[in-house]
């Protein structure tokens, strides 16, 4: 089993730095929190196992982390 190390570090109230292991070093990119603001708010209010939107939230978070370069999709197999 491969292990993928991810770290999110707040840069300011609008962005986070995503750091992930890439080979022997780390690669980073800046992510805009506004892109997932509604998910952050929904998580604060509705985070329960009965929430029918959890799979959708997870997919949107994955896509946000994956970014336009699709680095995460290349590192791990994605199942539908």
Q: What report would you give on this structure?
A:
With 80 residues, this protein is α+β, with helices and mostly antiparallel strands. The protein has one domain (6-75). Helices cover 35% and strands 26% of the residues. It contains 3 helices and 3 strands, in the order βββααα. It has helices spanning 37-46, 54-66, 71-75, and strands spanning 6-10, 15-22, 25-32. The protein has a 3-stranded antiparallel sheet, with no helix packed on it. The longest helix is centred in the C-terminal third of the chain and has 13 residues, at 54-66.
Q: What's the short story on this structure?
A:
It is built from 3 helices and 3 strands; from the N terminus they run βββααα.
What is the topology?
Layout: E1 6-10, E2 15-22, E3 25-32, H1 37-46, H2 54-66, H3 71-75
Antiparallel strand pairs: 1-2, 2-3
Shape, principal axes of CA atoms? globular
What is the percent of helical residues?
A: 25-40%
* Rounded average pLDDT: 81
- Continuous helix count: 3
Alpha-carbon Rg, integer: 14 Å
Query: In the residues, how many domains can be counted?
Result: 1
The largest pleated sheet is described as: 3 strands, antiparallel
- How many individual β-strands? 3
Work out the oligomeric state of the chains in this entry: single chain
- Series of H and E elements: EEEHHH
Q: Low-confidence parts lasting 5 or more residues at pLDDT below 50?
A: none
Q: How far is the N terminus from the C terminus?
A: 20 Å
Structural class: alpha+beta
Strands in their spatial order, largest beta sheet? 1-2-3
**Strand fraction band?**
25-35%
